[in-house]
Amino acid sequence: MNSIDQLLGIRNRVAMVVGAASGYGRQSAITLAQCGAQVALIDCNEAGLRQTQSMIIAGTPDSNTEIFITDISLVDNCDRLVADVHRHFGQIDILVHTAAVLQTRLPDEVDENHWNTTLDVNLRSQFFISRGVAKIMREAGWGRIINFISTAGLSGGLPSSIIYGISKSGAIAMTKNLARQNGRFGVLVNALSPATLDTPLFRRGMDDEELKELKRQHLQINTYGRWTHPEEVAAAVLFLSSQMSSTVTGHVLRADSGAELSGF
Ligand SMILES: NC(=O)c1ccc[n+]([C@@H]2O[C@H](COP(=O)([O-])OP(=O)(O)OC[C@H]3O[C@@H](n4cnc5c(N)ncnc54)[C@H](O)[C@@H]3O)[C@@H](O)[C@H]2O)c1
Q1: Cys-Cys link to 123, which of 1, 27, 170, 204 (CB 3.0-4.6 A)?
Q2: Cβ-based neighbours of 225, under 8 Å, separated by 6 or more
Q3: pLDDT (tens digit, 9 = 90+) per residue, 68-81?
Q4: Does residue 100 have its Cβ closer than 6 Å to ligand 1?
């Protein structure tokens, strides 16, 4: 083991990446595999998962990955997923939960279905999967749980993303509560607020013109004046997944390239 491996403490750990078919989940899985983690690739998008797995194999041929296709909006699926990953790998050390949906609706247009879809995927799955892995990690005496949130969870979000903002604020409360309960067992729980990235979630069904305008606005007010590369956010995921973050728990890490400052 070289000194970088010792510093990270990632090699041969088992990481569950939920939302691994796209965007930040895909890049988190690639980065963790590059650093020697075994990775459970989880999503409801099978084609995307297979593409992520191929990308990992291309860059890290000796990696150990397995695909788990599931819809995490259902609690039973969340519980089954944790059991399946545990059975397959024999341990779960790291959870990176990035899967989410962003559907925009003004408060007066929100109905029960919209509320449930957003909260079930974004928040409820983060709770049930975090709770499930925390139990396994406590017994092992080591664990890292990282739930993706958004600036909308910190600022409340735009009027049309009120339910998305609520789901992400809830994840912050959950992170702090679980961090308090699990710290003495070596299990650290943090939230990560990433930078803006052009992904299916960011596009949220916009047509080409709307998308072009949103991207123009983004660059105009962006603190860095440029787009963030997914690898930059995955580096923050790596830190929180690693031994290096041993003093960090119950924290919201803004790996957002200043997005909160610019109000985007
Ligand atoms: N992209 C951004 O600009 C941005 C900004 C702030 C926060 N975030 C947060 O970062 C995280 C990742 O976002 P992204 O942009 O990489 O998204 P993305 O759209 O690229 O990927 C989201 C993944 O979640 C999966 N998913 C959705 N519903 C699911 C379900 N019911 N069951 C299983 N999988 C499901 C999708 O199939 C997809 O692969 C999210 O939590 C998001 O809220 C993103």
Answers
A1: 170
A2: 219
A3: 999 999 999 999 99
A4: yes
